[in-house]
Amino acid sequence: MRLVLTWLINAAALLAVPYLMHSVDVTSIGAALVAALVLGLVNTLIRPVLLLLTLPVTVLSLGLFILVINGFMFWLVAQWVDGFHVDSFWSAMGGAILYSVISWALSTLLLKNADGNS
What we know:
Blueprint: H1 2-20, E1 24-26, H2 29-45, H3 47-53, H4 55-60, H5 65-80, E2 84-86, H6 89-114
Antiparallel strand pairs: 1-2
Keywords: Membrane, Transmembrane, Transmembrane helix
Organism: Pseudoduganella rivuli
Protein name: Phage holin family protein
């Protein structure tokens, strides 16, 4: 149940990003649900490989290169999913940051209460 709730929270966060950043577009709730699912799969399967391959650059940049990787993942999913569009790579980086912050905030508010913790 928690996995489904997390997926719905991520889809809601993805729907909120275009209201804050006009260079990101999500055309429907269905597109947001598919994009959130694909983002989760990409972050689970591809992101660890990229983090390992770019470890020297990440260390030299004191971890800031992870923002580039997150932006790339966001942009990559926008290329694959119909109804989810990002104008440029820089828009993808900004969108990924906004998406992460919104998703974190919603997860903190909703999942904390779903566990029965106050």
